[in-house]
Every structure is written in C-alpha cells, then in structure tokens.
Design brief:
This protein has 406 residues and is an alpha+beta fold. The chain contains 12 helices and 22 strands. Helices cover 31% and strands 24% of the residues. The strands form 5 sheets. An 8-stranded mixed sheet has the order 6-7-5-16-17-18-15-19. It has a 6-stranded mixed sheet with strand order 9-2-1-13-22-21, with helices on both faces. The structure holds flavin-adenine dinucleotide.
C-alpha cells in the first residue's frame, strides 16, 4: 500500500482549523479525506498555544452565528468518547467608558438579531459571578452565558477522533512539499513520504498557508503576528467555573487555567512577519517571551484585579496566529485554480472559529449558491483585484493592534 494514500480531499495542516474542517466535511458526507500534518500529532503548533477562549459576541450577525456554530459543535463533541474539554462558563465583557457602553448596547442588538442570549448586568451581578474582580469603574457589563473556553489540544484530538470515526484518515509526520496542478486544476500532492492524487486540496496550513497558496500561483495576504499570554500559579478564589472576561479598553482578556489566572492582550505596536522570512519546509521563527509586553497586561489589569500584580507566572503561551488586511477569514475554492480551497487567515480566532469555519467551508463547496457572507470570504477577493503587499501587511497588523477597537 502507498504510504500516502490517494483521497478525494487532502487537507494540509492538522491544527484546529484543518481537523475542524475534516470533521465538518466528513459529517457532510465527504468521507474520503486525508489530513496531512507535518508534526507528530494534531494541534501541536499554533493551536497548542491558544488561550482557548470562545467568544460569540461579534460585530455582525454572520460572525456571531459562525461562533455560535462552533459552540454547538463543541457541545456535540463533548458527548463523544474523546471530549474537547469544553467549559461553558459564560463571559463578562467590561466597558470602562460611555463610548464603550454604547458599543455594548449595539453588540447586544447584534446578538439579539443572531439569536444569541446576552444580558447587560449591573456591578452587583458581575461581582457575584467573578468576586475577585472590582467592577466599580465599569460603565456597562455584558454577560453571555453560553461563552466559555476549550482546551486547544483536546479540541484538535476530539475533531480527529470524530472525523476518523466517519472515515477520514490522518497522516502525521508527513510534510507537504508540493501541490500538483494539471491543466489549471489540482490533481495531487507531493510529500516527504510519497505522492498522492486528489481532487481537492484544502489549505489549512496556518502560518504556512501563504506558502502553500504560492505554490499554485496564488499570492494571499496572510501575515503571522506574534501573540502572547501568561498563566499564574494557582491563586485563592480562582475556580474553573468562573467566567472568561474581556476588558476592551485595556485590550485584555482572561480566564482561569489550572487554578491560576490566564491573562492575554493586544499590544498597541505588534510584532509581525513577512511570510517570505521563512520557508514552507521550515517552522516559523521561535517566539521569544516579551516580558515588557506581558508586564503591561498586568499593569493594565491591576486596578480591577490587584492581586494579579504579585502572582508568580508559571507559563507563557505564544505563537504566530495569522492576520488578513480586512480581518476576515479566507474560506473557499479559488476561481483561478480549481480544486484549491482555502481555510485560513484566522485573525486569532481559529479555535473558537473552527466549528463555524468547517460549516462555511462545506457550504462554499456544496452549495451551488452560497450565501453572500460565504462568498465574501472567498480567496478570490485577493486574487481578482489589485492590492499592495506593504499596505496589506500594515492593515493586517492594524487589525491586531485594534482588536477590541470600537
Ligand atoms: C498566544 C495565543 C493565544 C490565542 N488565543 C486564542 C483564543 O483564545 N481563542 C481562539 O479562538 N484562538 C486563539 N488563538 C489563535 C488560534 O490559536 C489560531 O487561530 C488557531 O490555532 C489557528 O489554527 P490553524 O489550524 O489555522 O493553525 P495551526 O494550529 O498552526 O495549524 C496549522 C498546521 O499546519 C501544519 N503545516 C504547516 N506546513 C505544513 C506542511 N508543509 N505539511 C504538513 N503540515 C503543515 C503545521 O504543522 C500546523 O500543525 C491564539 C493564538 C496564540 C498564539
């Protein structure tokens, strides 16, 4: 038998997005799937570093519904033998100005439109839900009871198990070397362990998605931007059932992890890479912990959560999530290269988006007339119009730097 079997669909990359797509496609009836992953296990690269927060409150009904579909998927997988460690603890979004409070009212309207339960709650209610936090300066607090967090590696393992149960196959320790195109259509792949034929290649290669697209002649603006958070040693009063929180004006988010505080944020001057700085056959550069940036997160939080300042740090999560100039995912088949399908450009919500991305990918491939939202995520928006590389890189960095912008 060939070491890399032929398949109708070959997915490049076994991160949250690739394995989530494998599960969604297999559930939709496409069971002849092979996932190629260079690492020895799925979810080992950017996904393993994710904070795992899954927020559904978004600025449009479509984006909200996408995230809601992910939560539905996590609940569904939670009933399978290999669970994603989904913790539906809710989330608190805290405003510290009147302008932000106005934004929260608009977000609530959008949530209502999408059918997502949210509630503007008062300080007493917020304190009851997260006693260690001082909410006295809050101008509005938005509570979403069905938000939560997932353990990133476990969601990847759960997707894998359930996709395999439906017939999908996985080749770990297998690196894509080339996507083969014949007469304008994908016909197979070359890997370090042999070649395989296929009808579709799904590019879910994370920080290497730009390189994989370039192999078939598509230049896509997918820029890795460094992101970090830290976890403290266990602290009194932090229990796993406390809600996640987001404080947009401080550009911070957090949750409880292993009895400690996980705190992450979006620094105003990002460190970003040109994907041309590394090759397809090499890992993205290592990320050195940036303590000044991490310390600025603690300083920001200290007025609301004073005990966080002195807590010893036990772990740092860090990696290169990818950003696009319009802050939107890139999903669907290219009009230029038939059979070449994108599932990338996650703008740092590829874990929380994974269930929804899978659903939209299925819609883009199966539906003769996909919704305007699905069409708007197509890679064609970057291959059929002119744009400037440097400008796109600046705009992608800006998406990171204004992540919680109004
Ligand atoms: C510090 C940090 C915190 C984050 N917090 C959150 C959060 O709270 N919530 C959230 O939703 N998201 C969060 N993210 C973002 C999230 O981690 C990413 O959006 C998500 O993991 C992207 O998944 P992916 O599958 O696209 O990429 P990856 O997980 O990187 O997977 C891509 C895979 O492709 C493989 N690959 C690459 N090249 C090849 C090749 N040639 N052949 C075979 N395989 C190849 C890689 O080995 C890799 O496993 C965070 C990210 C970081 C770094």
């Amino acid at each position: 038998m060939k070491s890399v079997p032929d398949a109708e669909i070959i997915i490049i990359g076994g991160g949250a997005v690739g394995v989530g797509c494998a599960y969604a496609l297999a559930k939709a009836g496409w069971t002849d799937i092979l996932v190629l992953e260079r690492a020895d296990e799925v979810g080992a690269i950017t996904t393993s570093q994710g904070a795992g927060l899954c927020g559904q409150v978004r600025d449009s009904a479509e984006r909200t519904k996408l995230a809601m579909h992910s939560v539905m998927t996590f609940r569904e997988l939670q009933r399978s033998p290999v669970k994603p460690d989904w913790n539906e603890v809710g989330s608190l979004r805290v405003a510290l100005s009147d302008r932000r409070a106005d934004e929260f009212r608009r977000l609530k309207q959008t949530a209502d439109e999408a059918g997502l339960e949210t509630e503007l709650i008062d300080v007493a209610e917020a304190t009851r839900r997260f006693p260690l936090m001082d909410f006295s300066t809050a101008t509005a607090i938005l509570w979403c009871p069905t938000d939560g967090y997932v353990t990133p590696r476990s969601i990847a393992a759960s997707y894998r198990h359930n996709a395999e149960r439906l017939g999908a196959r996985f080749a770990t320790g297998t690196a894509l070397e080339e996507v083969v195109v014949e007469n304008g259509r994908v016909s197979g792949v070359k890997t370090n362990r042999g070649n395989a034929g296929c009808r579709f290649v799904v590019n879910a290669a994370g920080a290497h998605a730009h390189h994989v697209a370039k192999q078939v002649g598509l230049v896509l603006p997918i820029f890795p931007v460094r992101h970090e958070y830290f976890v403290t040693v266990p602290m009194d009063g932090l229990t796993a059932d406390l809600p996640c929180f987001r404080i947009p004006e401080l550009t911070l988010y957090g949750r409880v992890r292993d009895g400690g505080l996980l705190l992450g944020g979006w620094e105003p001057r990002s460190l970003h890479l040109d994907p041309g700085e590394f090759n397809l056959d090499a890992a993205a550069p290592p990320v050195a912990t940036d303590w000044p940036v991490l310390s600025s997160f603690v300083e920001g939080l200290s007025a609301l959560f004073p005990t966080a300042r002195t807590a010893e740090k036990s772990w740092v999560g860090k990696g290169w999530p990818t950003f696009t100039p319009d802050g939107r995912f890139i999903i669907g088949e290219s009009a230029r290269v038939k059979g070449f399908v994108m599932a990338g450009g996650c703008n740092a919500h590829g874990i929380s988006g994974s269930g929804g991305i899978g659903k939209l990918l299925v819609e883009s491939l199966k539906d003769a007339n996909p919704s305007p939202y699905v069409r708007s995520l197509s890679p064609d928006r970057f291959t059929e119009t002119a744009w400037d590389w440097d400008d796109a890189r600046r705009r992608a960095a800006h998406v990171y730097e204004t992540y919680y912008g109004v």
